[in-house]
Amino acid sequence: MDIDTQKIDETVLGLLYLTLHDGVRAWKSFDWDAMNRLDENGFIENPVGKAKSVVLTEKGLRDSQRLFKKLFGKSPAWFESQ
To answer: Which of 14, 17, 53, 81 is the most exposed place for a label (fewest CB within 10 A)?
Structure first.
């Protein structure tokens, strides 16, 4: 099976928003390859090291919030039907 790494990276970036703390830090307990791609694309800084969290860049913080809402937020229509 071919894997769409862009979808994986978007999901990981969205989930980083879920673990956000100290304003711009997020727990880095995700796949190393995905974390390296997010670093290469400028969403996070230096995922390699002893720290258990990474720093999201301005771009990463903005996109992680957008992706979290897109991937995991409930639509207003869903609320109306409940």
So the answer is: 81
Domain assignment of residue 80, yes or no: no
Helix (H) or strand (E) holding 71: helix 58-72
Q: Which two tokens stand for residue 53?
A: 């969290």
What SS3 state is found at 60?
Answer: helix
Instruction: Using DSSP, state whether 44 is helix, strand or coil.
Output: strand
Is position 46 within any domain? yes
Asked if residue 42 lies in contact with residue 60, where contact means CB atoms within 8 angstroms, the answer is yes
In a domain, 28, yes or no: yes
Amino acid identity at 61: L
Is the model more confident about 43 or about 81?
Answer: 43
Beta-sheet pairing, 20-21 with 53-56: unpaired
